[in-house]
Specification:
The protein is built from five helices and no strands. By secondary structure, the protein is mainly alpha-helical.
Length: about 100
């Protein structure tokens, strides 16, 4: 059986069939969640200590660490990072190279 080539984007959520807008939002939230998990682990915080530091409940931290992306907004994730002493920068760039005009 010959192998099929599938053209993938740089966004796994887009590849899974989400709209362009939702896929980008999910990609950003996933990145922020990974950074939060890294910050919590680097500090050696328990879920309870992380929750207290970030001003949320322990079950909220549990949901974060279990990857429940559907339960967190970009705003909430940025607030949690800020409470851990992290700074968030935003970069905006074209998603694909602009078409040349002849």
């Amino acid at each position: 059986m010959p192998r099929q080539r599938i053209r993938l984007s740089r966004n796994v959520f887009r590849d899974l069939g989400f709209s362009i807008e939702e896929a980008e939002n999910l990609r950003v939230r996933a990145h922020l969640m990974v950074e939060l998990e890294k910050a919590i682990m680097r500090r050696g915080l328990t879920q309870r200590a992380a929750a207290k530091t970030m001003g949320v409940t322990q079950p909220r931290v549990s949901n974060l660490l279990r990857g429940r992306i559907d339960l967190f907004s970009v705003d909430m994730l940025i607030n949690m990072l800020a409470r851990l002493g992290m700074s968030v920068s935003v970069a905006v760039k074209p998603s694909r190279p602009p078409k040349r005009v002849a």
